[in-house]
Amino acid sequence: MAYELEDIRIGQEIFYYLLEHHELSEEAAEQLYRAYSESDRIQNLVKSQGEIAQCEIERYGNVIYLIPKEDNTFLGFSKAQLKQILCKSDGTDKDYYLSQFVILTLLVEFYDGQGATSKTRDYMRLGELQNCISARLKEGTERMGEEEEERAGIAFSNMAEAYEALRSDEKGARKKTTKEGFLYQILNFLQKQGLIEFVAADEMIKTTKKLDNFMDWNLLNQNHFQRVKRVLEGRNE
């Protein structure tokens, strides 16, 4: 298929905008948004650039998103980078997988609906999240032996050990070596990515429209989500 130079220029402009802002909404850049939405040719050009950059370009609602693929450590994050950001300075793999478990638990608590949208609540408190994490780790450890953990691909006992090794923060210092500080670090990271709103003064967590769209249109393939739920609940059937 031959493309006109103007289509190529607009496609490059849209892709550069996505690299800079990670999303393109009709409200923020109407001309670029309409060019993408109304032209299959320009869509193909932008998606092709995304493939080369190991990204997916998807439109959910009235927003176009640039989504780095799982192994894209240039535009996304590597395991080592996430460990450094989310865990204490001498963090181990146990700490890293615990941080991912925290994020999955947060998603399950917010998104468990079967209607027009999967979102089932508007907010949750930090203390409730802590209780959910403790309860799910305890349930998983009690229900699954070592062989079942290996089969499910998630080691509840190791994560529970890492979580219990974190002290309780009685002075509000929010260090990564405390349970509260560990969670604050994860929540602040998610907030910087535009996925949640975390009101530290009220210890309140809310999701953003960006995360709502991503969950409804992308991640919440129900087969995949139900598998995540079974793992978190300690079931492997």
Question: What's a concise summary of this model?
Answer:
This protein is mainly α.
Name the shape in a single word.
elongated
Number of helices: 11
Q: Kindly report the average pLDDT value.
A: 84
Radius of gyration, whole Å: 20 Å
- Helix coverage percent: 55-70%
User: Strand order across the biggest sheet?
Assistant: 1-3-2
Report how far the terminal alpha carbons are from each other: 48 Å
Distinctive features:
237 residues; mainly alpha; 6 strands; disordered C terminus
Description:
The chain has 237 residues and is mainly alpha-helical. The chain has eleven helices and six strands. The strands form two sheets. It has a three-stranded antiparallel beta sheet with strand order 1-3-2, with helices on both faces. Strand 2 (55-60) and strand 3 form a beta hairpin. Helix 1 crosses helix 2, helix 1 (5-21) packs across helix 3 and helix 6 (126-143) crosses helix 8 (156-164). It is elongated. The N and C termini lie far apart (48 Å).
List the helices and strands and how they pair.
Blueprint: H1 5-21, E1 23-25, H2 30-38, H3 40-52, E2 55-60, E3 63-68, H4 79-86, H5 93-110, E4 124-125, H6 126-143, H7 146-152, H8 156-164, H9 179-192, E5 196-199, E6 204-207, H10 209-219, H11 222-232
Antiparallel strand pairs: 1-3, 2-3, 4-6, 5-6
